[in-house]
Amino acid sequence: MIAELGLAVLWMAAALAVLQLFAGFSALRPSGKALAGVVRPLAVMQGALVAVSFFCLIDLFLETDLSVKLVAENSHSMKPFIFKLAGTWGNHEGSMLLWVTIMAVSGGVVALVEKRLREDTLLATLAGQAFVSLGFYAFLLLSSNPFERLPEPAPEGAGLNPLLQDIGLAFHPPTLYVGYVGLSVAFSFAIGALITRDVGPAFARAMRPWVLGAWIFLTVGITAGSYWAYYTLGWGGWWFWDPVENASLMPWLAATALLHSASVLASRNALRAWTVMLGVIAFSMSMVGTFLVRSGILTSVHAFAVDPERGSFILALLAIYIGGALALFGIRASTVTEGERFSVFSRESSLVFNNVMLCGILGIVLLGTLYPLLTEAFGAKVSVGPPYFNPVSAIFAIPMMMVMTVGPLLRWRKDKPGRITATVAVPALLAALVLLAVAIMAPGIRVLPMLGIAVGIGLAVASWFPLRGRNLRRTPLSVYGMVFGHFGIAVALLGAAAESAFSTERLAAMNVGDTQAVGPISLKLENIEPVAGPNWTALEATVSASYKGGTPVTLHPQARTFTSPPGERTESALHTRWNGQLYAVLGNEGEDGRWQMRFWWKPFVPLLWLGGLLVAFGGLLALIGRVVHDIKRLRAEDKIAYRKSQQEQLK
Amino acid sequence: MIEPAPKRSGLAIWLPLILFGGFFALVIWGLVRPADREVASAFIGKPLPQFNLEAATEDRPGLATNDFKVGKPKLLNVFASWCVPCAIESPQLAALARQGVEIDGVAIRDRREDLARFLATNGNPFARIGKDDLSQVQLAIGSSGVPETFVIDGKGVIRYQHIGEIREEDMPLILAKLKEAGQ
User: Fold this and answer.
1) If you count Cβ atoms within 10 Å of the first and of the last residue's Cβ in chain A, which end, N or C, has fewer?
2) Same structural domain, A645 and A512
């Protein structure tokens, strides 16, 4: 019953999207003005219906209704509650329903709260959102129906991939999805503004909170995903340049660029065409990423739901939406004027530089991801890995971070280099000193980590300078947001560089009672015994670790065996100190009865994820600042309108 | 805000669409590409070029051209620790090694500690591993990516090139080529 209800409301929502599309576009013509009033309610209703459909699917998973094909294929009655819940989106159909849900709900919220945009631009935006949603409704309903019933209910479910049975992963995909799909709002705004030729500061201000919101979720999602890969995959790495990771990084890069160029457009009415194009590109990258992951066109360690037929479907959607939006951009961009001019030495210029660098990184990541396919088209098969991505992205990232130290200190429009030379000299000198110190004290480390540490220190200091000389209590929240965001980037860079430069590793075959050392830490294998969890059993090692002879702490790395479905996974154990992290993995038992143990000491590596969270926190501050500011302004406008009407009544 | 349309360069505006067109053509090809991806290498039938690579790990010797001129066919596997398909083919390499096939490795643009970790995780089927930091040997034998596997006969002549990871279904072919090279 629930499954039928879910499917029925999904069809109804799709029908409403058709109405929303036609009503929205008709209302743009003088003859269709009468329809203008229904567009917003349609968008809200559509969002509500899809939400109901999604809750139906959640309910089916929580009940473990094995007559539904999707549940039978991906869940199991013995699974813990939280993984039953996560099972809803841990598969292709469910994640596509989540995608459509986020898209429709955010469209509904735009319809409810957006008041700054010109009415016709808003109508075009909502029509655009409906247009994009329709493709995904079609995909869901025609080729990936999540509510399909089995002819006979299955006796038991097939379970969820053990790798995915992790609390971090339960919430990692939905977080990323909110980010990916949240960008669809920016995409629709860009389309709406292109159609009504309304590219200006008001458009940028309306779009900005949406981009910020999506970007915060993307930042958190990428940070969490990186941490998940770090502790579950048991190889100690935190970024692998895997196609799926790249698929999440590319929209983030585009959204970061969009965020900054939207600021320029909002405050200075410059970079109009560029901002609109980034609005299109950001969501396009989300779609391209989804396509690359789902179609199985690239080999990936993440590849789930690989299916060429679905690939063709998503590809057709890409052609319609990205191709269509870029064509619209081509037709209309020539009518979008360049906007205000600015000098080479100005805050605008530094933002343009960083935008270009971000797009550069985006380009090389996209190229690197597609390169195996590209060379295969010419008859050669290659695999592209970190030796390409690391140095080539650093070529763009390092100059960008240098400009990041200067940019926020510059004035809009035109500035004199002399005004900030003394200020910038401090971080520059500091970075040079650090570089020298690292080069002398640790001569063995490679160039990139060394540069990373120097630039990271310089940026970490310089990111606070925009607060200098300000009244801290009256500084807008958005400025704090920028400060925290930039500081977070510096912190993450330091974590990454320290990890890459100073990590030490120990691989050892150990008997119970043996001792080992890794970096400053001495280790002892106390015992190994079997333990049992809700749907797994494991061998668990007890390792005591002591930092430079201090009080020992106990770690419990496990090698888990899952029963439904069968599978194995290492559960690494971490011990975090303020200055680094100990990482322990229990391997197999060797032929001589000794246990293969692997330990890493990674100095300052937690900074990496702390930095990511700081960036997201900065985004959150900025978002709150913007929204509060908008609400205040709306209230003030309401008041003025009220007074005016009262005065007129008095007259 | 309808503004007078100024002239601006046409190409720049259409560039994103053109790039997208290229991307689109590429992935269309990717979706419909034929399943058979065997490529006839120009290097087949030619002797291995002269090289002498230093050892990439502590427990295996390095690799030189003369190591192949011992009268018995061998496999030459071009791999790297950073390459995901290389990890995927490791069970197949291990199976070949168990059957008595000597496999020599060339590690491309790798670091010793990464390599040790890779071999510890995926097993070490190699008799010798040479370190090719600049892909010189890789390029000299006509390999453009990782992983690739060459069948070399007992006189050091390249007899077969397998591009991409060795999958379960490729095993009979590899074994047949080895047998052929041994005759």
Assistant:
1) C
2) no
> Region B74-100: what's the mean pLDDT?
87
**B114 shares contact with chain A (CB less than 8 Å):** no
In this structure, the answer to whether residues A526 and A584 fall within a common structural domain is yes
- 3-state class of A184 per DSSP? helix
Residues of A in contact with B161 (CB under 8 A): none
Mean pLDDT estimate for chain A = 86
- Candidates A376, A384, A570, A588: best to mutate against B (most CBs of B within 10 A) is A376
CA distance A644 to A651: 11
* Residue range A128-176, pLDDT digits in tens: 999 999 999 998 998 888 898 888 787 777 766 666 667 766 788 889 8
- B145 vs A: CB within 8 A: yes
Q: Please tell me if residue A588 touches chain B, with a CB cutoff of 8 Å.
A: no
Q: Is the domain of A494 the same as that of A480?
A: yes
Please give the residue range of the domain that contains residue A453. Answer: 416-503+607-651
- pLDDT per residue as tens digits for the range B52-67: 888 988 888 999 888 8
Buried b (16+ CB within 10 A) or exposed e, B102-115: bbbbbbbbbbeebb
CB contact under 8 A, B20 and A374: no
Q: Which of 3.40.50.1820, 3.40.50.300, 3.40.30.10, 2.60.120.10 would CATH assign to domain B52-182?
A: 3.40.30.10
Taking only the tens place, the pLDDT of each residue in A348-382 is 888 989 999 999 999 999 988 888 778 777 766 66
Please name the member of A236, A311, A385 whose beta carbon is closest to the beta carbon of B83: A385
CA-CA distances (angstroms) from residue A306 to A9, A292, A550? 28, 10, 50
**Cβ contact (<8 Å) for A242 and B16?**
no
Q: Please tell me which of the candidates B31, B82, B109 has its beta carbon nearest to residue A295.
A: B31
Which pLDDT value is given to residue A257? Answer: 94
d(CA A450, CA A446): 6
Question: What are the residues facing A558 on neighbouring strands?
Answer: A540, A571
- The stretch A57-64 carries a mean pLDDT of 90
